[in-house]
Amino acid sequence: MTTSASTPLPLEPPASLPRTLGALRAAGHEHVGVKEELRRNLLQRMRSGEDRFPGVVGYEDTVAPELERALLAGHDVVLLGERGQGKTRLLRSLVGLLDEWTPVIAGSELNEHPYSPLTPASRRRVVAEGDDLAVDWLHRSLRYGEKLATPDTSVGDLIGDVDPVKVAEGRTLGDPETIHFGLVPRTNRGIFAINELPDLAERIQVSLLNVLEERDIQVRGYQLRLPLDVLLVASANPEDYTNRGRIISPLKDRFGAEVRTHYPLEVALEVQLVQQEADTVAEVPEHLVEVLARFTRAVRESPAVDPASGVSARFAIAAAETVAAAALRRSALSGETGDPVARVGDLHTIVSVLGGKVEFEQGEEGREVEVLEHLLRTAVAETYRARLGGAELSGFSDLVTGGSTIETGDLVPAQRLLEQVGTVPGLGRVLDRLGLGDEPSPGRAASGVEFVLEALHLTRRLDKVVLEDGRTVYGS
Description:
By secondary structure, the chain is an alpha/beta fold. It contains 20 helices and 12 strands. It has helices at residues 21-26, 34-48, 63-73, 87-93, 120-129, 155-158, 164-168, 183-186, 202-205, 209-212, 249-254, 267-277, 286-301, 313-334, 349-354, 368-388, 394-397, 414-421, 427-433, 442-458, and strands spanning 77-80, 101-105, 135-139, 144-148, 160-162, 179-181, 190-195, 230-236, 257-260, 405-409, 463-466, 471-475.
């Protein structure tokens, strides 16, 4: 359940692309603005049925249509939602809607198009060199800029400032070529994202007003007009409007669209998200991923948890990685053979490790562990009912008749657990319903058996004792 390796970016543009202004014109290249480029490529993907926002889970029928309408309208966008809802992932996926390669004036700081130079220096070059003007090609991955709004962010960082080195070289302060451009103009003809926009100081937000409305920049009173071609996008958490900062009204008014994001609406989507994003060091079977998904949703909805803080998808992802690590540790310490597989007994590790990610309501001090353990037991029981409801499990109950017990735990290898169980009527059907296959490995079979034993305990059909040395004993 690890994420797939990303495709390496091409280092060089195809040799067939024109390398001079004259050759570019002869090839019939058409210059369109970045918003028109996004609109054209989005429509092409929609008509072909391609995935418009790869890697983004659970937004197909809610957030994606709203964002698509905003892009088709050519609007700058604010994504508004709680932490861990994939806002940054969604913004970064917009790069895939740009043309793979776009022409720029060779050596241009601002990615200027050869047909439409912005700076005085580039305009002089176009006049002087004509059709021989050198053209480079920029990959779409380099047309995305991003800045996390932090208290120390300055206007110079975003827009630009006077470069003292250029002044020292003999240029006058009135010369526009003394400007060191900031991140926004350097993303000209691309997409610029500001994460956590309300955290940006209000006086710094003012510097973006011209970018969004007049599409130009002003630097320290310079009479400089650079008509930027940029899509400005941002993310924000709703509570930031009151707790840490706010988006000033003129800036909010200039964004064309505000799109609300959300956590996965269904358990299956939460499971899919964890399977896609978790980088696990051991196998975490799907029934345990479902437990983690249900646990995350239960924590998110619990009245004991501060709803304004949110319980992000990172919680479930980190939980899956922690459970996998517990399985790998057991394999190493117990001498277990075969690939390590997580079991339901490994779930207890996430309460202590990840409890700090959850912000509880005032008045719940001292009950944090109790609340999380109760919600985890509830998640196991719900998963049992969803996957094994109505299944014949008397064969498992019969394992502990006559005072017999079954021992498992952090250091009990899969083989030893299966030796205690032996042959159980209906085991194959149970493992199949848990998604463990017809002929599971010992590790997967042990994971299924332990899950059933825990479910029988939670439904009051088996007793359970956890010993101080970490062993767990199931009995009648």
